Amino acid sequence: MINNEEFLDEIGDNHFSSNAKNPLREDAFALTDEEKIEKIKKDVENILQTLGMDLTDDSIKGTPNRVAKMFVKEIFGGLNPAKQPKASTFDNNYKYGEMLVEKNITVYSTCEHHLLPIIGRAHVAYISSGRVIGLSKMNRIVEYYAKRPQVQERLTMQIVQELQKALGTEDVACVIDAKHLCVNSRGIKDIESSTVTSEFGGKFKEPQTKREFLDYIKLDTQF
């Protein structure tokens, strides 16, 4: 009989997700960014003091404030819907009807189980049904959903769903190949392994279209 703490540890160590959406409370944005920074700063101070660190040392005395600002303004900034990029689309006036692929988009995210980095590349593609989106917007969508405590499977799905909504088509695909430092630097400590996730919508579910996309990104993994 496994107790609840052991069960929760097993979920985290095996990188399972309990929610297809980022689990946010209803009052997630009741505090301002500045109020959140002040609260997190005190929490980080407590962690460091508990670990035995001397917070009067010049090298570390600013760490609680730096970490708090980093959490709120940077690596978890994608939790705030006010920071969601505007996914401007345009008429496909030049009638381009083939696959458009944006590959090797840098992914910097954070594993929600151990709060350690996820670092890799996203490859995103769509086939226009009448609308097109600026290339930089695809990068910004990846960045927005990556900047939160994440699970790679969820991140992959969120990128596809956001582009499907913006473009008005199901014909969107995303593959992410990333290293998880919670695997590489702790636990099993396998520094070579990476995790590949995929989400295929519409025409990308068809074997020929899927294979064409995987050939573009030079990925041999079979899905």
TrEMBL record:
Zn(2+) binds at residues 111, 114, 182. The gene is folE. The lineage of its organism: Bacteria, Pseudomonadati, Bacteroidota, Flavobacteriia, Flavobacteriales. It comes from the Bacteria. This is GTP cyclohydrolase 1. The keyword Transit peptide does not apply. PROSITE patterns: GTP_CYCLOHYDROL_1_1 (PS00859), GTP_CYCLOHYDROL_1_2 (PS00860). It comes from Flavobacterium artemisiae. Homopolymer. Residues 40-217 form the GTP cyclohydrolase I domain.
